[in-house]
Design brief:
The chain is mostly helical and 185 residues long. It folds into 2 domains: 2-39; 53-182, Orthogonal Bundle (Lysozyme), CATH 1.10.530. It contains 9 helices and no strands. It has helices at residues 2-28, 35-39, 53-70, 79-88, 95-104, 128-139, 147-150, 155-162, 169-182.
Length: 185
């Protein structure tokens, strides 16, 4: 009886060790591909993979540009810039394009390179890139002069401050954001 107990205990210790060591033995023979081979798509990823931030950025920029292009809006081609500035300023990637759609029909009725109606459209910019940068920085709460309105606020709270005159403004912008994301082109 004592001998059986010892054998049972030994097997309980030995079995997990053998299964672990055989799994590790498999890894010894694993070949790590060279970086240039991986980029040629010679290898398939096994297991769950998470899209890279740059993949999402490209997908987001493409959705913005597709929305603008289908409607003949002048901001087509600025999707990448808007996504980049959204990331820099920690705002929703859909926010700037949605505001531009509401305020100027995607740049069709921009005043002084200001497709966002920023400053009641009284503020003029040298370029659309400058407008995107300035509005993203402000709405992101990164301009000390306007931070009290936008810093640490939800998207809805930011929109309520962006235009407090039109009661339905926030819901209209949110709807545009949803359309852009859905790719309803």
């Amino acid at each position: 009886m004592k001998k059986q107990i010892i054998l049972s205990v030994r097997s309980l210790v030995l079995i997990p060790f053998l299964t672990t060591s055989s799994s590790l033995a498999i890894l010894q023979n694993t070949i790590v591909p060279r970086e240039e081979d991986v980029t040629k798509s010679n290898y398939v990823a096994i297991g769950p993979t998470k899209p890279l931030q740059e993949d999402l950025s490209k997908e987001h920029a493409d959705k913005i540009d597709a929305y603008y292009e289908k409607r003949g809006m002048p901001l087509a081609g600025y999707g990448e810039k808007m996504v980049l500035e959204a990331q820099k300023n920690d705002i929703d990637w859909r926010l700037l394009p949605a505001i531009s759609i509401k305020e100027s029909t995607g740049g069709k009725f921009a005043c002084g390179n200001n497709p966002f109606g920023w400053g009641s459209c009284k503020i003029k910019f040298d370029s659309l890139n400058e407008a995107i940068e300035v509005v993203a920085r402000n709405v992101g709460g990164n301009n000390p002069k306007t931070a009290r309105y936008y810093k640490d606020k939800t998207t809805e709270e930011k929109l309520a401050r962006y235009n407090s005159v039109i009661p339905t403004y926030t819901s209209q912008i949110v709807k545009f954001m949803e359309l852009i994301e859905a790719g309803d082109n």
